[in-house]
Amino acid sequence: MDLIERVEELQVLIEEAKSVPLSSSAVVNREELLDLLAQLKEEVPEEIRQARWMTRDRDELAARARKEAERIVQEAREQRDRLLTRTEIVHAAQRESERIVEDAKDRAAKIRLQAEDYVDQKLAGFEILLNKTLTTVARGRVQLQGEKPSPVAEAPEAGPPSGPFNAEALHQSAS
Fold first, then answer.
1. HSE value, Cβ hemisphere, 13 Å, CA-based, for 167
2. Of 24, 36, 51, 53, which is least surrounded by CB within 10 A?
């Protein structure tokens, strides 16, 4: 017999049981009912038993999969946070490096201006000294030639010449 036939026998046994007067209960032969139930248990196909085990295994596997998924998601969040932190550090480092470069450019420009001012002052002093020396040389040449000093030779007494070295004026005074 198969499982369905046993269940039908059980149903007939209960339907044909004697009713207890003034109640919805019935009197069933215990031996006969227990025997039918034992036969039902024996005839439960192996597939149903395996299905029951598979259901339990599936539930356990699903629970493990959920835990693993939660763990992976947590690790992904932590990795994302680490990457964001690294990205923020990189951005901060870039901003700091840009600030340092700008400071260095500003300092270099300031130093260049100071150097240009220094060189300009030294050249101006050298120009004054050169003009005085030129005037002295011109006066000395005039004295060697026995001539009367020219207005260019007298310029140092009135003050140093205002312009840079003029070779043409030197040649005129030498002639």
1. 0
2. 24
